[in-house]
Design goal:
about 550 residues, 9-stranded antiparallel β-sheet, alpha+beta, 9-stranded mixed β-sheet
């Protein structure tokens, strides 16, 4: 992909020039050599990212900044700062959260690993490159040794640590590091048959895991780790929205609901697509690069990976595209993704926003809200797909009340009582069923409650990206955080590019927030409430 490679050189040079302007060159500062972040904080992890960008163009003979002395001095200065923050045991702090942190050390040394591998693979090094490698090598090696202490918080941390232990074990011929990686790997990789990792983080941690799998595959000479990545990449082909962003509402991590483009997936699609000759992956790599050009964002930041795999620079394919039609049901992951050309819809189990519709520039999240004992919104416990392609969601909300202890408790302090062992009076129960089916170019959403009468509940339709709403009676401008209760007829939401028709509306009561409120409305969205008292049975149509 020579044109991709050439664009990456130009974009990495832009990054490098920007980094040079942010480096602290005050010899009297405790952060001398560090690179300041936009929030004014200095951190070694950020410094290593900057050094990685600078190093890629410094060592690339096709770059205009090749062997630029100012870049070399910047990296040596930056690495001296990084080394000064590395603890004696090899570990780094992540100063806004974790200290003496094995996973953050794994991330840090993983950033500079490609530079180190590239220099180690060269037959001849200049004096400057040798000095650079010496500093990189000691940080990488000592960091790898530090990982022996272990300790992690989240699922992906295990694979970051295991991968860097295995890599360092192979790189430095230290078998105890490789052996230590198996303490994590024996737990088994948490990538299910759908290709979904535990954290369901399509906007970030998928690729942390994917990179770790590729490193493990290489370090342990075991291609089975690559199969997890291939499954994830195939699943992700159904996670791209009509606006070219990634669907992130299912994530359990910080990327939830964030606008993220699939830039960081590029290298995995290209590398594994070319290695295994999988056309759909190669096609996706080309499409992702085109997305960066159309959105006028910097190209994927993987110049150094091209330099480590030069055979891919002139690997070319005319395949380009991401599927525009699919009906994917991932039962193990509790999510369905369906695309019909210009729009997608997503159905999720266990989420209060159980239905998302993306019509390009207009997005809709659907929730059924209200209060019933400790419940504040419908969250499906089960999700099934019928033979006609419709999704059936169900939840049984169980009511209950505490009863007195049969014997006098040991204390009168409520907070010290064993309330979990109290007898309970059970009931009543409320059942909520939702059926989502396609009808031509529209979606039908059928909603029914049963078991409890007279509770004021509502359907919340949260629209993002609209500037007006209209029905048979009026047209109203929208600024982004309005709340409306519509009582009858169909209505249309729109902006200058797209429109979505929804209805019929129903408004039996005028909802007002109170102390027994359901979940808070979706922030930043214009919200239409459809209201009724349980038990109710309504069907609405959504037509992007």
């Amino acid at each position: 992909m020579r044109n991709h490679y050439q664009q990456m050189i130009r974009d990495t040079e832009k990054r490098a020039r920007h980094h040079l302007k942010t480096q602290n060159t005050d010899a009297g500062s405790p952060y001398y050599g560090a690179f300041v972040m936009p929030n004014g904080v200095y951190m070694q992890k950020h410094a290593l990212y900057c050094i990685a960008d600078i190093g890629a163009v410094y060592m690339n003979a096709d770059a205009s900044l090749y062997h630029d002395e100012s870049l070399l001095q910047s990296m040596l200065l930056g690495l001296a700062y990084v080394r000064s923050t590395q603890h004696e045991n090899g570990l780094f702090d992540y100063i806004t959260c974790n200290f003496y942190s094995a996973p953050d050390t794994a991330f840090c040394i993983g950033i500079i690993l490609p530079l180190c591998l590239y220099l180690k693979g060269r037959e001849m090094l200049t004096e400057g490159e040798a000095a650079l490698l010496e500093k990189l090598d000691v940080i990488l090696h000592d960091g790898g040794r530090g990982l022996m202490e272990g300790g992690f918080h989240t699922p992906n941390h295990r694979w970051a640590i295991a991968a860097m232990l295995a890599v360092c074990g192979k790189l430095y011929g230290e078998a105890d590091l490789t052996e230590a990686s198996f303490a994590y790997l024996k737990e088994g990789i948490d990538c299910n048959a759908d290709g979904e990792y535990s954290e369901k983080s399509a906007g970030n941690y998928n690729n942390v895991n994917n990179l770790a799998m590729l490193m493990l595959s290489d370090a342990l000479d075991d291609a089975s780790y690559e199969q997890h990545v291939i499954r994830n990449l195939k699943m992700m082909l159904t996670y791209i929205e009509p606006d070219d962003s990634i669907f992130t509402a299912n994530s359990t991590r910080f990327d939830k609901d964030r606008l993220v483009y699939p830039t960081d997936y590029y290298w995995f699609y290209l590398y594994l697509g070319a290695k295994y000759r999988i056309p759909e992956l190669i096609s996706a790599a080309n499409a992702i690069f085109e997305i960066t050009q159309e959105k006028r964002i910097l190209s994927p930041n993987c110049l150094i990976r091209y330099m480590l795999n030069p055979e891919l620079i002139d690997f070319e394919s005319v395949l380009c595209g991401i599927p525009k039609e699919y009906h994917a049901y991932y039962a193990d992951s509790g999510i369905a993704r369906v695309r019909r050309g210009h729009y997608t819809y997503t159905v999720m189990k266990g989420k209060s926003n159980f239905l998302w519709v993306n019509g390009g520039s207009i997005k809709l999240a659907v929730k059924i809200g209200g209060s019933f004992c400790e419940h504040r919104a419908f969250k499906a416990e089960t999700m099934d797909l019928d033979e006609k392609g419709a999704f059936h969601l169900h939840q049984k909300m169980r009511g209950w009340y505490y009863l007195p202890f049969p014997e006098k408790p040991a204390t009168s302090d409520w907070w010290q009582m064993d309330n979990a062992s109290r007898p309970k009076k059970m009931g009543p129960d409320m059942d909520i069923d939702v059926i989502i089916r396609e009808q031509g170019d529209a979606l039908e959403v059928e909603m029914q409650t049963a078991g409890v009468s007279g509770a004021p509940w509502r359907v919340e339709l949260a629209f993002s990206g609209i500037d007006r709403i209209a029905n048979d009676h009026l047209t109203m401008p929208i600024h982004g955080d309005e709340v409306l209760v519509l009582r009858d007829s169909f209505f249309t939401v729109a902006n200058g590019e797209d429109a979505m028709e929804v209805g019929p509306a129903f408004g039996v009561h005028h909802f007002t927030e109170g102390k027994e409120d359901s979940e808070a409305k979706t922030p930043g969205a214009a919200t239409v409430y459809l209201t009724d008292y349980t038990e109710f049975h309504h069907t609405i149509t959504i037509r992007p």
